[in-house]
């Protein structure tokens, strides 16, 4: 099996170039295993991020045959011909398959991603019913792998867009019964939910079934009602 | 975002969202009536005109057409801007799309009333 890997070595390559590597065509190998095989035995200069190998850490997202994928969960047996491995689209490439995640981290921090409380400190834990947990649990499954950003045509065209994962993260707190924060000003803006044109690719790309597109559309309804009805200050 | 766009976007999106819901719920019924029952002779043209004699039915039809057109306008606006890469002409494209939707609504209303 041929792995066609995008290489970019600052100071050496003017722009990314492809390099072909022959890897054993093993049934039980994910793309990440093949990359590690190259790194360990063929070419130690190849750079890429990875950590857990089991779809939890969100580090190994890359563009595999044009699609944003976790390389630890995408197997060689899924392909017949040469497999093209490129860095995630929509992000600046630092080296080879490593992209700059700083803009993404900045977007995450814009949505106040923690429980906001007002008034006195609680005397004990907050109990939640299963229904209250279910209201936001799905959005808490995000592993920050950035596949949704790479899949989103709006984000790729406009890097100022807050993006799917950040808005889903905001909804994870908005829909939490313990949260008293208000994220309206950040979310109800052109860079927030109104930038989304509901292409839905974020949800297709998400390896954890978070459904960021749903999170965004739900907040659009909240934001639209609050904008249209000035007296409607209800919490999302 | 300009204050104008910030004010307009929620309304436009509500029209889009409302249009999607209303179309999904009612268009199958309309297709059944106009595309199947009338050609099959189950319903006749006088039946339909009798239905339209009720002002509530005509009002509902105008509302349905308006929402469906604004839904389409919103979708066409963004599909055009993203696929053709012409987002810098957003104002012109938006005015054209929503203008056509408004025109279609006015024409529908003038035919029915």
Summarize the topology.
The complex is a heterodimer of chains A (236) and B (113).
Chain A: E1 2-7, E2 17-22, H1 31-42, E3 61-64, E4 67-70, E5 83-86, E6 93-95, E7 98-99, H2 102-110, H3 130-137, H4 147-151, H5 153-157, H6 164-174, H7 184-187, H8 201-205, H9 212-228
Parallel strand pairs in A: 1-5
Antiparallel strand pairs in A: 1-2, 3-4, 3-5, 6-7
Helix pairs in contact in A: 2-6, 6-9
Chain B: H1 3-37, H2 45-52, H3 55-83, H4 90-112
Helix pairs in contact in B: 1-3, 3-4
Keywords (chain B): Cell membrane, Membrane, Transmembrane, Transmembrane helix
InterPro entries (chain B): Fumarate_red_D, SQR/QFR_C/D
Protein name (chain B): Fumarate reductase subunit D
**What oligomeric state best describes the polypeptide chains here?**
heterodimer
Helical residue percent band of chain B: over 70%
- What is the C-alpha radius of gyration of chain B, as a whole number of Å? 17 Å
Helices and strands of chain B, in order, run as HHHH
What fraction strand of chain A?
5-15%
| CATH homologous superfamily identity of the largest domain in chain A | Alpha-helical ferredoxin
Overall number of structural domains of chain A: 2
Envelope shape of chain A: elongated
Portion of residues in beta strands of chain B equals: under 5%
What overall geometry of chain B do the principal axes of the alpha carbons give? elongated
N- and C-termini, Cα separation of chain A: 50 Å
Mean pLDDT over all positions of chain B: 90
> CATH topology of the largest domain in chain A, which one?
Fumarate Reductase Iron-sulfur Protein, Chain B, domain 2
């Amino acid at each position: 099996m041929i792995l066609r890997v995008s290489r970019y070595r600052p100071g050496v390559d003017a722009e990314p170039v492809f390099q072909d590597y022959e890897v054993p065509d093993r049934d039980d190998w994910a793309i990440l295993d093949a990359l590690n095989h190259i790194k360990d035995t063929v070419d130690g200069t190849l750079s890429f991020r990875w950590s857990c190998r089991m779809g939890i850490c969100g580090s190994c997202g890359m563009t595999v045959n044009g699609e944003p994928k976790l390389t630890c969960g995408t197997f060689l047996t899924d392909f017949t011909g040469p497999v093209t491995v490129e860095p995630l689209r929509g992000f600046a490439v630092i080296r080879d398959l490593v992209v700059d995640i700083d803009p993404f981290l900045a977007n995450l921090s814009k949505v106040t991603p923690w429980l906001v409380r007002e008034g006195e400190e609680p005397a004990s834990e907050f109990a939640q019913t299963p229904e209250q947990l279910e209201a936001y649990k799905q959005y808490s499954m995000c592993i920050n792998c950035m596949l949704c950003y790479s899949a989103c045509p709006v984000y790729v065209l406009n890097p100022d867009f807050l993006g799917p994962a950040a808005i889903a993260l905001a909804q994870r707190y908005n829909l939490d019964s313990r949260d008293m924060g208000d994220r309206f000003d950040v979310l109800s803006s052109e860079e927030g939910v109104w930038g989304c044109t509901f292409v839905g690719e974020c949800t297709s790309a998400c390896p954890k079934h978070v459904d960021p597109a749903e999170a965004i559309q739900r907040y659009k309804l909240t934001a639209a009602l609050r904008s249209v009805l000035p007296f409607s200050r209800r919490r999302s | 975002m300009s204050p104008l766009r910030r004010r307009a976007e929620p309304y436009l999106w509500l029209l889009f969202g409302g249009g999607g819901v209303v179309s999904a719920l009612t268009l199958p019924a309309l297709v059944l009536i106009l595309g199947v029952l009338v050609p099959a002779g189950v319903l006749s043209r006088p039946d339909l005109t009798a239905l339209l004699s009720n002002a509530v039915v005509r009002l509902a039809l105008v509302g349905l057409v308006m929402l469906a057109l604004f839904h389409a306008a919103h979708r066409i606006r963004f599909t055009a801007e993203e696929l053709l890469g012409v987002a810098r002409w957003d104002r012109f494209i938006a005015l054209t799309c929503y203008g056509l939707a408004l025109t279609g609504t006015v024409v529908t209303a003038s035919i029915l009333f």
